[in-house]
Amino acid sequence: MNAQTPFALKAVNLSKRYTLGALAPTQRTLRDVITASAARLNPFARNGRQSHDAPDLWALKDVSFTIRPGEVVAIIGRNGAGKSTLLKILSRITEPASGFAEIQGRVGSLLEVGTGFHPELSGRENIFLNGSILGMARREIERKFDEIVAFAELEQFVDTPVKHYSSGMYVRLAFAVAAHLEPEILLVDEVLAVGDAAFQKKCLGKMSDVAQQGRTILFVSHNTAAMLNLCQRGLLLEKGRLVGDDAIEPIIQRYLKSLRTATPWDLSGFTDRRGAGNVRFTRVRFEDGAGNPVEHGISGEPLVVLLDYQAEQHRTLPNCRASVTFYDGLGQALFNCSSELVVRDPINLPSSGTLRCVIPQLPLSQSQYLITLFLQVNGEIEDWIENAIELEVEDGDFYGTGRLYPPGWRGKGVLVPHQWSVEGEA
Prior knowledge:
Coagulation Factor XIII, Chain A, domain 1
């Protein structure tokens, strides 16, 4: 791209450094002052203050890219990769340690629940406040007001102070304001996860409308299906560095590949997982229908997924639910095997053991697939590992005809039993 090409947003060597365990030197709040005073009374602190040897964490390091007007770009990466830090810098919420960003146009941000809202003001007042911050005239905001309130489904609460809103109400109003007040650039972090499924679908539809209007969107999400539908391009961050800038499909594939464990059978050292953690998956194994260990599946043949687990305490685990979900190479869910769908009575597990999920006829064509593991105990999620392991599937006689899947159709995902017949006269 030459220097004359217009851009909506340009980042040049953006870096952001945090000193672990140290207070920021500027913009200290009253809480920071009180905390610092308490720290000086700590007998274990060096000379009554934080150690000068506290390590530095580079949340971003020399990140550069250019986004053209009208592009819809996904920012992808593991938790802690620097995605939210990048959006906060672009939103002018925080300053970079070095480098700079140029932005051409009004920016609307949806980064955290309630960001930019004044808790004592009503929903109505916050709509006008946010519009004013965006530089909009009052008549412009009035023109959009009813549409914003209707989208957020908050007609009954629009004159209620937002400090009384639930997190879902916050998100609905924040997204409605950010999307409807016509910013040229829309920055969206993964706050949509707070809303219910119907609201998420409505938000994604609205972002699609915004994109079709030629406005620029930067979208942080772990929802690969949404990214594939909305975005043409992806930026991949790893440990604060930009390691990929490409079309969205190869970027998603590269990201998902990076999530796989170096030793895929052993999950004991896997850190990128969610849940309370009182019970954890420790290992994944595969067997064929005869109980023989295998490293791959075969289309149409039985596959057994064995999940070893261990609880911290030696006690019976009541009312358990486990699932394995299969995804294609772009992270789109293909099918889910959940114990609660096939087992009538509650499952009570010993403190350690192995869960077996038997798939009588593997309905996948030849390709590589990712498996997400989930375990819930007595209503609480204990372990949830997305893309925990990769399964390679080889062609097999799924349809019992002696024929393999046509070579030109490899990697198409789920196979469906079906029949053909012919009606009519010869």
